[in-house]
User: Which sequence fits this backbone?
C-alpha cells in the first residue's frame, strides 16, 4: 500500500539540527535565544532546544555538537542556515570582509555538516542534509552588490552536489534550498539602510511580493521527510520566479 501523503511530509519522531513534528536543536551565535525562539519553545515543550555556538570556532563547534548528540541521542537531519551577507562594490571588499563570509558561509557550513554526517554514518542513520544556499549562486540579485557573498553561496551549491554523490551509498541525502528575496532580519536590516530595496523586493519577483520565512517551511519539510526519499543533489529554488526573469528587472539603485 502506498504511504499516506501526511506520513511522507511528517517529521514525527525525528531529531533535526538547525544552525542559526521533529525534535529540533537550534544553534546560533547569540548567547541566549531571541523572543521568537522562546515563544516557539513554550508552544512545543521538550521538542526545541538551544545551543549557543560560533560556527567559525572549531573547538566551540565540536563542543556544541557533542552536547547535542549527548542530549538528543539521535540525529536524523541537519539544516545549515547560518550566514552573513556583505553588500558593497567589488573594489571596496576588504580581505576581512571576504574571510568573514567564508568562515561562516563556507567553513562553518562544511564542518557543521561533517559533524552531523559522521554521527549518522556511525549509527547507521539514513539521514537528510539540507543546506540553505541562495539565488545569488545562480544569478545576480538586482539592487545588490554581492560578489563575495555570491561566491560563498556558490561554494555551498557545489559542495552539496559533490557530497550528495559521495554519501548516496550510505543512504544519506544532501540537498539545498535557494531562497530569493525573503523578509529575514538580515535582508530587512539592509533595506533599512537602503529603502529603495523594498521596492525591488516586491517588484523584481514575478510573483510581485517579497517572500517570508513561512515560504521556506514546505521546502524544508519536503527535503527532510520521506516524501523526498529518492531526491538527492537537488537545489530547490524558492524565489517567486526570480530565476527566470531577474535579468529583465532594471534596478535604479
Assistant:
Amino acid at each position: 500500500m502506498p504511504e499516506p501523503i501526511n506520513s511522507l511530509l511528517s517529521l514525527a519522531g525525528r531529531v533535526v539540527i538547525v544552525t542559526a513534528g521533529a525534535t529540533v536543536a537550534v544553534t546560533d551565535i547569540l548567547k541566549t535565544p531571541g523572543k521568537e525562539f522562546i515563544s516557539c519553545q513554550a508552544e512545543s515543550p521538550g521538542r526545541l532546544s538551544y545551543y549557543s555556538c560560533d560556527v567559525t570556532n572549531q573547538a566551540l563547534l565540536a563542543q556544541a555538537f557533542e552536547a547535542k548528540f549527548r542530549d538528543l541521542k539521535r540525529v536524523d537531519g541537519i539544516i545549515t542556515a547560518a550566514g552573513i551577507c556583505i553588500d558593497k562594490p567589488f573594489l571596496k571588499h576588504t580581505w576581512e570582509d571576504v574571510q568573514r563570509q567564508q568562515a561562516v558561509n563556507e567553513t562553518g557550513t562544511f564542518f557543521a555538516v561533517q559533524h552531523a554526517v559522521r554521527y549518522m554514518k556511525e549509527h547507521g542513520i539514513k539521514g537528510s542534509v539540507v543546506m540553505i544556499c541562495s539565488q545569488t549562486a545562480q544569478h545576480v540579485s538586482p539592487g545588490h552588490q554581492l560578489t563575495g557573498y555570491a561566491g560563498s553561496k556558490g561554494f555551498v551549491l557545489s559542495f552539496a552536489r559533490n557530497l550528495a554523490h559521495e554519501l548516496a551509498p550510505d543512504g544519506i541525502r544532501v540537498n539545498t534550498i535557494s531562497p530569493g528575496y525573503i523578509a529575514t532580519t538580515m535582508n530587512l536590516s539592509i533595506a533599512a539602510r537602503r529603502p529603495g530595496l523594498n521596492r525591488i523586493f516586491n517588484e523584481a519577483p514575478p510573483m510581485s511580493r517579497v517572500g517570508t520565512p513561512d515560504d521556506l517551511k514546505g521546502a524544508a519539510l519536503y527535503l527532510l521527510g520521506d516524501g523526498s526519499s529518492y531526491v538527492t543533489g537537488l537545489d530547490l529554488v524558492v524565489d517567486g520566479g526570480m530565476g527566470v526573469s531577474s535579468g529583465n528587472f532594471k534596478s535604479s539603485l
